[in-house]
Structure formats: C-alpha cells, structure tokens
Amino acid sequence: MMYIGALMIFIAIVLAVTFGNILKNDTKKIIENINIVKSGKYNTQTINRPDELGEISFAIKDMSKSIKEGIEQIEQLHGEITNTQKEIIYTMGEIAETRSKETGNHVKRVAEYSYLLAIKFGLSEEEASILKLASPMHDIGKVGIPDNILNKPRKLTYEEFEIMKTHAKLGFEMLRHSKKPILQAAAIVSREHHEKYDGTGYPRGLKDKDIHIFARITAVADVFDALGSHRVYKKAWNDEKIFKLFKEEKGKHFDPVIIELFFENISEINKIRDIFKDV
Hints:
By secondary structure, the protein is mostly helical.
C-alpha cells in the first residue's frame, strides 16, 4: 500500500504538470486569437481555436494506461515479496520442527487450522491472515534448546522440562524487536501458546482473555496436531482420545469458545489434515 500511495502522488504531480502545460498553451492561443479579432484581421482560416477537451482527453487516456501498467507492475512485485515472505516464515517454522524431528507439514497444518478458527471466531480477514503467517513460528524458540532434551525419547526430568519451557521466552526474544505486524504477532504466539485458560500455563501464568487471542487459537491448533502426530517420545493419538481430552480441558487448558468452534468445524479441520498429511 505504501508503494501504491507513492505512485498515486507521483501520478497527481504528472497530471498537474501535463494539464498545466496544455492549458497554458491553449490560453496563449486564445489570447492570440483575441488579438487577431480585435485587429480585424481574421477569417475562418486565421482563427486557431484550441481543442482543449480533445488534448486533455488524449492525455488522460495515455496517463490512465500508464497508471494501470504501473499499478499492475507494483501489484506483481508486491505479490512476489509477499510470497517470498511466506516462504521464509514457513522455513523458519520448519527449522524449529526439524530440530525436534517433526515434519514441516506440522507448521502448515497449524497455520491452516489457526486461520480457520480465527475466521470462525470472528476475527477479520486481515487478522486471520496475520495469524496464519505467525502461527508457524510458535516453536521457533526450540532452536535454542539442546538436542539431548529436545529429542529425548523418554519423559523429561523436572530440570529438563524447566529448560524446555524456556523456548517460549526464547522465541519471543528472537522476534519481539521487529516492527512488522506478522513478526510482532509471531512473538506473541511464541511466548503465549503454552499459557492455559485457567492460569496454570507458562511462562507467565496468564489467564483467560489476558492470553492473546492469537495464542489461544494457536494453542488448540498446535495441541490437536501434536497429539495426532507421532513424536520421538510418544505415538500418535487417535481422534477419540484427543476429543476426550479437549472436552475435559475446555475452560481449563483451552478457551471454551475456541473448543466449541473446533468441534463445530471438525469436518473442515479434517479436510485440512488430509491435504497436508505427512508423507
């Protein structure tokens, strides 16, 4: 939008200069014709009547074509930049998942689930799209966790789990300095997606709506996909077991409204899972 705004200002200046020159020339011709009439030395061939509207019309037509071509080029460039940004964000998310021996499709499914639930929750298209791009980086802080803890095939000790929990703060610290809305959202999601609705989560023990809506949505999307996927420390759960946990944790771990939306839209959730299934 910034580029388009700059282009429109440039176009306005060009239009003003173009029309100014046209009207300046036409005014000169009109004055010449007035002087000819005043002198009595005129005939139909002598009078040079300027076709102001015609010249302006052609100028507008040419300028409109240039404007259209310019906007199309800017939109194409903006699209390329956006796609590159998406690719970088997904890659960042996949790096974290790969270190913990999880598939790249995990972050893609979490992104799609989060977008769907955000729309169903009533967030705007813009907000839902930001969350879709931010949620893949929810575990980016895991790049700072030692491999022997990250990939331990058994239950973590208390001390090991305390180290594991630091990935939420690490991710936040990595992203929080950016002024880009997507990375700001990613910083929030990274820090808060392990908070629980009843206040028993980490790292800050936030409760209820003190937890950002982006994090509350991502928590449901992430846990659903993580439980349904194979990990080094566990086998994949079946849907029945996951659904039972979700119903038990409604209002405890998870925002009850988002859990309701999850069940109401389970058919769409399953479609996403089928599209991005692990190979």
